[in-house]
Amino acid sequence: MTIKQLTKWLAMALGTLVGLVAFAVAAVYAVSELKLRKTYPVPLTEIAVPADSAALTEGQRLATIHGCNGCHGPNFQGAVFFDQPGVARLVAANLTEVARTYSDAELARAVRHGVKRDGRGVAGMPSAMFYDLSDHDLARIIAYVRSRPRVDNTLPPRHVGPLGRLGLVLGQYHLEPDGIDHTRPRLAAEPADRVAYGRYLAKTSCPECHGPNLRGEPGRTPSLVLVVPAYREEQFQSFLRTGVALGGRELPLMSDMARSRFSHFADDEVRALYAYLTSVSAADSAR
Question: What is the span of the domain harbouring residue 98?
Answer without folding.
Answer: 53-179
